[in-house]
Design a protein that fits this description.
The protein is an alpha+beta fold. The chain folds into 2 domains: about 10-40, no CATH class; about 40-160, no CATH class. Helix content is about 40%, strand content about 15%. It has 4 helices and 6 strands, in the order ββαββααββα. It has helices spanning about 40-55, 80-100, 100-120, 140-150, and strands spanning about 15, 20, 70, 75, 120-125, 125-130. The strands form 3 sheets. The chain has a two-stranded antiparallel sheet with strand order 1-2. Strands 3-4 form a two-stranded antiparallel ribbon. Helix 1 packs across helix 2 (about 80-100) and helix 2 packs antiparallel against helix 3 (about 100-120). The longest helix is centred in the middle third of the chain and has 18 residues, at about 80-100. The chain starts with 12 loop residues before the first strand and ends in an 8-residue tail after the last helix. About 10% of the residues are buried.
Length: about 160
C-alpha cells in the first residue's frame, strides 16, 4: 500500500534576552547562528567571549574536557576522542589570544599537559619522532606498538 509523505522545511531561531537570531537552515552550517557583516565588532567579541568561557568551564582539573551527558540516559559520555580534545584546545587558544586572557592560558596549559601525559608516544629509537594516539583505536594501534616492543625491548608483558 502506498502512503503519502509530506515534506516540509522549518526555520530555527535563537532567542537571547530580547534579541532573536535566525539559524542557518541548510548545508554544513545547518542550525548554526547566522553571522553577517552587518553586526558590530562588539557582537563578534561577545560571541568569542561566551564561546571561550563555555570551553573553559568544560575543563576538569586534570585537563580533560567534560563533553556532557547522553540526554536520553542521563549518563556521562564515557568515551574520549583525542581529535576532539585537540581541536577544542585549538579553539580555546584562539579565543584566549583574541581576548588577551592571561588567566585562561593556565586552563589551556592543563589541556595540553593532559594531551602529552595521556596520548603521546615517543619512539625510543627515533627521539625526534613522537606520535599522538587516540585510545578509542587502541587495539589496532596497540598491536603495532606491541609488535615493536616485543621485537625491540624486553617488555614481553605487553603480550598478556
Amino acid at each position: 500500500m502506498n502512503k503519502s509523505v509530506i515534506r516540509f522545511q522549518t526555520r530555527g531561531y535563537l532567542v537571547e534576552g530580547d534579541k532573536m537570531f535566525e539559524l542557518n537552515a541548510g548545508g554544513s552550517m545547518h542550525g548554526i547562528r547566522k553571522i553577517g557583516g552587518h553586526q558590530k565588532k562588539s557582537e563578534y567579541r561577545r560571541l568569542i567571549q561566551t564561546a571561550t568561557q563555555y570551553l573553559k568551564v568544560q575543563i576538569d582539573t586534570d585537563g580533560r574536557y567534560e563533553y556532557g551527558k547522553f540526554p536520553h540516559f542521563d549518563k556521562r559520555i564515557g568515551f574520549y576522542n583525542v581529535l576532539r580534545h585537540t581541536s577544542t584546545t585549538y579553539s580555546l587558544l584562539e579565543g584566549l589570544e583574541y581576548l588577551n586572557d592571561k588567566k585562561g592560558i593556565e586552563w589551556a596549559k592543563l589541556t595540553i599537559d593532559h594531551l602529552l601525559e595521556n596520548f603521546l608516544y615517543t619512539d625510543p629509537e627515533d627521539p625526534e619522532s613522537a606520535y599522538i594516539y587516540d585510545d578509542t583505536k587502541m587495539k589496532t594501534r596497540c598491536s603495532k606498538i606491541e609488535r615493536w616492543l616485543i621485537r625491540n625491548t624486553s617488555m614481553k608483558q605487553w603480550t598478556a
